[in-house]
Write a structure and sequence with these properties.
heterodimer, A: 328 residues, mainly alpha, ABC transporter involved in vitamin B12 uptake, BtuC, 2 strands, globular, B: 294 residues, two-stranded antiparallel sheet, 12 helices, 3% strand
């Protein structure tokens, strides 16, 4: 796994990434508004699944309640803009990270004592606990109707005059893209640092890692908190784009969607989850316009990926590239 | 006294259907080591199919009080999707990491949910109070629908049968041996393929039967499967993964807790259940009756 990972990354040279970034940045000039709006959704999910994969792909822990932290971010945006009239996006992001990290520190301390199915179940239970909390305490959270998210100020600028879609596909788009780029860079540094190596060691052989002096539980806990912070940023970016938050965000199926994206793209690769996110969002848009039964098709895709191609799309590309290089 | 009895009866009624679904989850987890997220959706499938069959039965002029017979038959017949799912999908992932097994069942949930939507639509389906043909019974001041008592009795009967099947039959011995040490039983010449098919079918039938039995008292709605899976999940976590006794005890706890919360403080209904689930996972992750190592 380690080898394949290295090869794929070596293939992804810096120029490729720069070109991809430039294309994304100039998309608002050329692409239609709807395309940009989908891309904006993708940015939010990209940040979330990138954090999720630190836990899943790198540390080997499957969280089935990760949407909880995305929801924390989204509701932070809702509370700050609607209830407390704090419209500054930077404040929202910072508060979202702090709240999610604190909550994750608490929940993580309990969850990381377990692995595999028990970890998955415990995170699922916490996600659903939060769901019922949001649903039942309607005087605080608006219950199943959720809350409105007002338009935030970006870097202190109030853009109330700009039409909604122009704002979202214009300045907000660029803002989200920059956040994504910065966080991708940070995540890249995290996984290639000694800390990231420790996480991988824990995933592959926890006993050995412990023997070598890596505090397994502590490192799992760090990974849990970081991934929660990423999810919160993703949620905070998503909320103003949708303009509304509701408890469905933390329902267990939404957590399942995050796992789905990660697996679809390929959890063994750094950019796999991002690839999965973009495929998921565009495919969902396409399939939903064709049939109301898009979940059936997605369920079938998930079954196919699990059975035939557990490495996801990135895994397929990776093995194809490897075969080509071996032949050449 | 009256309220207490009412709470108790509705709690036990909840518990009886929860037990069936949870028992289905447990058998499959015990043998295949797969946590089947689709058990809730199978329950919904049983409910919808049960309604259709009962409607046809009544429309053809058969005596109404006999509706329970086609209902049970419906629950059993639709359970035959079990071997289809097992052969078509599940069998490919037995040797894989449990993460992938869990995700495959999640994929099955997505597919089955849409199959139900495709066949029955999204509007609620009900038998129109057919369960009331059996009348109501007055027990110490509390009114209990007789049909609910029948469901409880059915569930107890099935629990007994399951206990007999697992403890006293050849099939049960094989199942227990496989749950314990798969390689060893395979080495002793047990046909894993057939054990897996049978066990998965058993698990499916328990779920669909549970759905069929419960549906006359309410309506089949599109969210019922998704809602039940989290309850069944709570049941098996509290009772202990893979344990039949655990499914029984867990179902009673969750069922009674649910009806207790509904009548006292509805806001706390599910909240209390999740708090207990988390408490159990933290304090005794193997559950009340589980023996699986953590």
């Amino acid at each position: 796994m380690e080898n394949r990972f290295g090869i794929a990354l070596a293939k992804l040279k810096t120029p490729t990434i720069v070109v991809a970034g430039l294309v994304l940045a100039t998309l608002p000039l050329f692409g239609g508004q709807f395309l940009n709006y989908l891309m904006l959704t993708f940015f939010a999910y990209a940040i979330t699944v990138m954090g999720f994969n630190l836990l899943f792909g790198y540390t080997g822990l499957l969280s089935f309640g990760h949407a909880l932290f995305m929801t924390v971010g989204a509701y932070t945006a809702a509370f700050l803009t609607s209830t407390f009239s704090v419209p500054y996006m930077e404040v929202i992001l910072v508060v979202a990270v702090i709240v999610a990290a604190l909550l994750a520190a608490l929940i993580g301390a309990i969850c990381v004592r377990y692995i595999k199915i028990y970890f998955a179940m415990l995170t699922l239970a916490f996600g659903m606990l939060f769901y019922t909390f949001l649903l039942k305490f309607y005087f605080l959270t608006g219950g199943d109707e959720g809350m409105r998210v007002l338009r935030p100020y970006l870097l202190g600028f109030n853009q109330a005059e700009t039409p909604k879609m122009d704002f979202l596909t214009g300045s907000y788009y660029i803002y989200a893209l920059v956040v994504l780029a910065v966080l991708t860079f940070v995540m890249w540094r995290i996984v290639s640092s000694p800390f990231g190596l420790c996480l991988k060691a824990i995933r592959d052989n926890p006993e050995k890692a412990e023997y070598l002096g890596v505090s397994v539980k502590k490192y799992r806990w760090y990974a849990f908190v970081i991934s929660a912070a990423y999810a919160a940023v993703g949620g905070a970016i998503l909320a103003p784009a949708v303009g509304q938050v509701d408890p469905g965000l933390t329902y267990w199926t939404h957590s399942g969607t995050l796992v789905f994206m990660t697996l679809l793209g390929g959890f063994e690769y750094f950019f796999g989850p991002l690839l999965g996110g973009i495929i998921y969002i565009f495919l969902q848009d396409k399939v939903m316009s064709l049939t109301p039964y898009w979940r059936f098709i997605f369920g079938a895709i998930l079954a196919f990926v699990v059975i035939v191609a557990p490495g996801g799309v990135a895994g397929i590309i990776g093995s194809f590239v490897r075969r080509r290089t071996q032949r050449g | 006294m009256e309220t207490i009895l009412n709470i108790l009866f509705s709690g036990v009624f909840h518990a009886s259907t929860l037990f069936l679904v949870a028992a289905g989850l447990q058998v499959v987890f015990g043998v295949q080591k797969v946590f089947n997220l689709a058990c809730g959706t199978l329950y919904a499938l049983g409910a919808y199919f049960g309604i259709t069959v009962v409607r046809v039965f009544v429309d053809h002029g058969f005596p109404k009080p006999l509706f329970i017979l086609p209902l049970i038959a419906a629950g059993l017949i639709i359970g035959l999707v079990g071997p289809l799912i097992e052969r078509g999908l599940m069998r490919f992932v037995y040797d894989r990491d449990e993460t992938f097994q869990l995700l495959l069942t999640f994929g099955i949930v997505m597919m089955l949910e849409d199959v139900i939507k495709f066949v029955w639509g999204t509007s609620p389906q009900s038998t129109g109070g057919l369960d009331l043909v059996y009348g109501q019974l007055n027990v110490l001041g509390a009114t209990v629908p007789v049909y609910n008592l029948i469901v409880i009795a059915c569930s107890l009967l099935i629990a007994g049968l399951m206990g007999y099947l697992i403890m006293n039959t050849r099939f049960g011995r094989i199942v227990r041996a496989t749950a314990d040490k798969k390689e060893m039983s395979e080495a002793l010449g047990i046909n894993m393929r057939s054990v897996y098919i049978k066990v998965f079918t058993l698990g499916t039938v328990l779920g669909t039967l549970g759905g069929a039995l419960v549906v006359p008292t309410g309506a089949a709605v599109s969210e019922m499967g998704m809602e039940l899976i989290v309850l069944a999940f709570a049941v098996v976590v509290i009772g202990g993964l893979g344990s039949m006794k655990g499914a029984f005890a867990g179902a009673l706890i969750v069922g009674i807790l649910k009806s207790l919360a509904i009548s006292i403080y509805p806001e706390l209904e599910m909240l209390t259940i999740y708090v207990i689930v988390i408490a159990v996972l933290v304090i005794k992750p193997q559950g009340l009756f589980g023996s699986a190592g953590v």
